[in-house]
Design a protein that fits this description.
This protein has helices spanning 3-19, 27-51, 55-58, 62-66, 68-72, 88-92, 97-116, 122-142, 164-176, 180-183, 195-205. By secondary structure, the protein is an all-alpha fold. Among the domains are: 64-151, no CATH class; 156-185, no CATH class.
Length: 207
């Protein structure tokens, strides 16, 4: 018997064993074991998922640590009188499970560019900054700034305690149906070159 036939016979025996009802184990026990295995698998999957939703994970690659993280450090989202911080995943990873998984799948493309070294120098990063910013602005625009609204909400704002400029802009934005990213680009990171032209193009595209 050839090696290939031996392997085929082995897998056939395993498959037959899995399909054949057990003579010594009850259906209830099999169900219980399957349930426990499912819980362990699901717990492990979610543990791994949440591990990738931490600031330390986000800045573990030098492209993020050397560029956007250093720009974020010292901004109002990093340090403020209340001590409430919004870290990378708070702004860039959706909380609802289905959208979170969708974002994680999209992020697999970033692993490819990490391997290719697309933005592994400051010069390369600046060359691609506008493209990356536009992609994120578009995502936030399409979701009505969902991640911003985890902390900020028009209905919870006491505009009477805001400065006149902020008060007027927020009232205007609410009346016009605008969303956070319409006005708050570059609040945690440097704006790319030609950002205002790109902003006009984005607003025109969604009308």
């Amino acid at each position: 018997m050839s090696e290939q036939e031996e392997k085929g016979g082995f897998f056939n025996r395993i498959w037959a064993l899995l399909r054949r009802p057990s003579k010594t184990t009850s259906a209830g026990m099999l169900l219980f074991v399957g349930l426990i295995a499912g819980v362990i698998f699901w717990g492990g999957f979610n543990w791994t998922l949440e591990l990738t939703n931490t600031e330390s994970f986000c800045i573990s690659c030098h492209e993020m640590e050397q560029n956007v993280y250093r720009e974020y450090t010292g901004t109002v989202h990093d340090s403020n009188p209340s001590g409430v911080r919004a870290t990378c995943p708070d702004c860039h990873v959706p909380r609802p499970w289905i959208y979170k998984i969708q974002r994680k799948i999209q992020a697999s493309n970033e692993l490819l560019h990490k391997a290719l070294g697309t933005i592994d120098t400051r010069e390369k990063f600046e060359e691609h900054r506008l493209t990356m910013a536009q992609r994120e602005w578009k995502r936030m625009k399409s979701s009505d700034s969902r991640e911003c609204r985890n902390c900020h909400n028009f209905m919870s704002m006491d505009v009477s305690r805001q400065g006149s400029r902020a008060r007027n802009r927020h009232i205007e934005a609410q009346e016009d149906g605008k969303t956070c990213i319409d006005c708050h680009k570059g609040i945690a990171h440097e704006l790319p070159a030609n950002a205002f032209t790109a902003e006009e193009e984005l607003n025109q595209a969604v009308k």
